[in-house]
Amino acid sequence: METFVLLLAGGLVTGAIYALVAAGYAVLYTATGFVNFALGAQAMVAGYLTYAAFVDLPVVVRILIAVAGSVLLSVLSWVLIYRRVAEKDMLAGVIMSFGFSIVLAEVVQLVAGGIPRPARSPVGSTAHSLGPLSISNHSIAVLAVSAVLFALLGLVLSSRGGTAIRAMFQDKEMAETLGIPTHRVTLWLFALSGVFAGAAGVLAAPILSLSPHMGTRLALIAFVGAVLGGLGTIRSAIAGAVLLGLLEAFFAGYISSDWRATLVFGVFIAVLVVRPAGVLGRIATVKV
Amino acid sequence: MTALLEARGLTRRWGGLTAVDEVDLTVHRGSLHGLIGPNGAGKTTLVNMITGVDRIDGGRVVFQGADVTGLAAHRLASRGMARSFQTSQLFEDESVLDNVMAGRHRHIGYRFPHTFFYTPKVSREERRHRTDVHAILRELDLAVDAHRQVSELPYGRRRLVELARAMASEPTLLVLDEPAAGLPGSDVDVLGEVLRRLRRNGYTILVIEHNIGLLMTICDRMTVLSEGRVIADDEPAVVRESPRVIEAYLGRTDDA
Amino acid sequence: MTDTLTRPRQPSTTDPAGHRRAGLPVIVAVVLVAAAAIFPALSDYSTTYLFAYILIIALLGLSLHLLMGLMGVFSLGQAALFGTGAYAAVVVTEDLGLDGAIGFVLVAAVGAVLGLLMGAVTLRVTDLYLALTTLAVGYIFENVVRNSDWLGGPQGRSGFSIMFFGRSLDDPRLLCWIGLGALTLFLAVIASMRRSKIGRAFMATRESPMAARSIGVDARRYKLLGFTIAGAFSAVAGGLYSAWSLVVDPSVYSIDLTLSVLAIAIVGGLRSAPGILVVAAALTYFRNSAGDFGVSDYVLLVYGSLIVLSLRFLPLGLGGLASSPAVVRLVGRSGRRGRGGAA
């Protein structure tokens, strides 16, 4: 029982971090069909900005700088790098984001060195015991912050902006004739996905510890989670990522942690072959 | 005349909407058959069902005496049903010759290991097919452009390339989806002449058009669709007089 | 534009009845291959060693040329095939005790089967998902070999000796000749397919799947065929790599390799085999001698940047640049200018 509760809590925490990146994917994908693989690297950059770059500044300021940095990377990479290419050939744009994520990782490695370094959570890692459950301050922060962010995302999407996004996904030209400024909406969506990637980086670093290539792995696993749930809607992508976190935790806890990668990617292939729209997604034409 | 293609009771539903409703269509061997109807009448859907591109919810398709209902598009193509598309589906970055050679696919017989090591057999067969393709290109007056990239050609000539590619498969039935779409008036006449010539050379052709003027002058028989149903199926002269056709179609458009 | 259907007044300059002559390229290819075959015999040990590595990477680059350039399938599965080939070569020659002459055929067969399976899985998914599925296969295999004692676990296996016709492959010259043989074979197969029915079927599937079906091309069959061939040659590259590096460990599945091959294929031009070969040589040389110039920390940065910059500014790669209409026009114009003396 105790193990179960611990694994459940642990799975929810990693799942929440995956879900933040997955939400970043889905926000972009549902509106533009673009999958930005650099989100993981943006999270990594945000992690370094928070825990390694400006150690003298107060932590709140550092977090703000980190999230702003991720947003800036997100928007600038779209405007300067992906846009021209992705508008003609979406897939080429996606390959570019893959390349760009390597560039980010390598730049950070040159600046900060390749050795993984620990990151101390700003809220500390004091553990609390609640019956069988033992949970650290940081884990509570992860759950609370991601819950707030998802709630805010829900609010944004149920507003008028959300309608515009859905219209864009359905038919971009139609959305344009309806007077939706698709260019501007896309920019906002990249900024929004940057917020989620930044938050993921700030929250993930104390758990995964900082390393230049932590982003690549995060990007891939979050994508697997999003696909598991269904990339077609933001809600199912988030749910899928949480589900993957839980699956991973229980598998590692009860069966074997050595075979984790096989589980994650095996699940990915199985889902794509059996149910390409995702376990939770509605069957719809997959757009990518 | 024998029936080459017989569709009986074809039906396609989308949610609660019936896009094609119990349609019967018979194309006789050696005829030039027109399929017309206003926009949204279900013409392209019907053709997509017949050629295996779209799903069939009800009814049967018989082609050359065999039931081909629900057969995949590439299987129908291997049985001799070739088609062109309303929006260009050419291989843009390739030469006209290669585009049309691709249409020969089902007639090229060499297999492993010949395809992996350009053997004399491949060379011979390729040369033979290239000669055939040049004959088609000459027939459509495309020979001068054989080695140009498709993307360099003007719109009208690209439509001809698409026709050439379909012809290259030596189809028993040639299905053309709005071949005149987007062509200026003078070109429509040229196209009509090309189609008539093909028919004289023994092709069986099913043409989809909303340009009724073109079909009236060249077709042996035409089927008129409106809102997913057949409202007339006869010779052009008879169709022209049909009150239902006039009401559903001629009455509303006079651009022909 | 009124007369678009009728012929333009300026006919194209090419002979309408003629077909492209194959003579010159074949002669050039034969000369190049002969030169490459003599090269290892004349050069010193380390150059030969580097040349062998270039050949191995070039094989992988060409497999991406086939998959991405000709078939239009975005694959990140090169590492999965390469790594499996690397392990298969050790198992076949060391554990089964076979000579490489037979062993490498088996390695190719293993790669072909794996490629076929990957192709079969990916038939169900499209574009991006396909790429990630192939990438996922690599991650799974890496995980499996890491946990498998038989294959040496995280340390991998070393101390094996791969023989070929009774001679050890730790002689880099022999390695070069076998690599060159495989590369030439692969080039010949690709060139032959490109000019034949299969090449056109690939082209049709790549450019318009709908049109491909309408001319009777069974896209699934050709995708499986392409994956099988690419799998066989990628696995052979992996097997040669085992012989080259004398150790095979889970790093053969690393994303590092996938990335460098992707960079080579994109910069060289996915549609251009010569472009890929040239860039494979250049980038592999760069990577190998980066240590001498003191820039080894920048290698991956350069690869990543090249992918981004090439897609942004040179979408068809260097090979595409050479054959782009603009360049051909430019060259043609300067040629005329030279002859006629007028612009």
Q: How would you describe what is shown here?
A:
The complex is a heterotrimer of chains A (288), B (256) and C (343). With 288 residues, chain A is an all-alpha fold. Chain A has helices at 2-32, 39-53, 59-88, 90-112, 137-158, 160-170, 172-177, 182-208, 214-229, 234-255, 260-274, and strands at residues 127-130, 133-136. Chain A has a two-stranded antiparallel ribbon. In chain A, strand 1 (127-130) and strand 2 (133-136) form a beta hairpin. The longest helix of chain A has 31 residues, at 2-32. Chain A is globular and about 60 Å long. Residues 283-288 of chain A have low confidence and may be disordered. With 256 residues, chain B is of the alpha/beta class. Chain B has helices spanning 43-50, 73-78, 96-102, 120-139, 155-168, 185-200, 212-218, 236-241, 243-250, and strands at residues 3-14, 17-28, 32-36, 58-63, 66-67, 81-83, 173-177, 205-209, 221-226, 229-234. In chain B, helix 3 (96-102) packs parallel to helix 5, helix 4 packs across helix 5 (155-168) and helix 6 runs parallel beside helix 7. Chain B is globular and about 60 Å long. The model of chain B has no long low-confidence stretch (mean pLDDT 87). Chain C is built from 14 helices and 4 strands. In chain C, helix 2 crosses helix 11 (273-293), helix 6 (172-195) runs antiparallel to helix 9 (219-245) and helix 10 (255-268) packs parallel to helix 13 (317-323). Classes of the chains: A mainly alpha (288), B alpha/beta (256), C mainly alpha (343).
Q: What's this model, at a glance?
A:
Chain A has 288 residues and is an all-alpha fold. Chain A has 11 helices and 2 strands, in the order ααααββααααααα.
Secondary-structure blueprint of this entry?
The complex is a heterotrimer of chains A (288), B (256) and C (343).
Chain A: H1 2-32, H2 39-53, H3 59-88, H4 90-112, E1 127-130, E2 133-136, H5 137-158, H6 160-170, H7 172-177, H8 182-208, H9 214-229, H10 234-255, H11 260-274
Antiparallel strand pairs in A: 1-2
Helix pairs in contact in A: 1-5, 1-6, 1-8, 1-9, 1-10, 2-3, 2-4, 2-8, 2-9, 3-4, 3-8, 5-8, 9-10, 9-11
Chain B: E1 3-14, E2 17-28, E3 32-36, H1 43-50, E4 58-63, E5 66-67, H2 73-78, E6 81-83, H3 96-102, H4 120-139, H5 155-168, E7 173-177, H6 185-200, E8 205-209, H7 212-218, E9 221-226, E10 229-234, H8 236-241, H9 243-250
Parallel strand pairs in B: 3-8, 3-9, 6-7, 7-8
Antiparallel strand pairs in B: 1-2, 1-4, 4-5, 9-10
Helix pairs in contact in B: 3-5, 4-5, 6-7
Chain C: H1 23-42, H2 45-70, H3 78-95, H4 100-122, H5 127-146, E1 157-158, E2 163-164, E3 167-168, H6 172-195, H7 197-207, H8 209-214, H9 219-245, E4 247-248, H10 255-268, H11 273-293, H12 299-313, H13 317-323, H14 325-340
Helix pairs in contact in C: 1-6, 2-6, 2-9, 2-10, 2-11, 3-4, 3-5, 3-9, 4-9, 6-7, 6-9, 10-11, 10-12, 10-13, 11-13
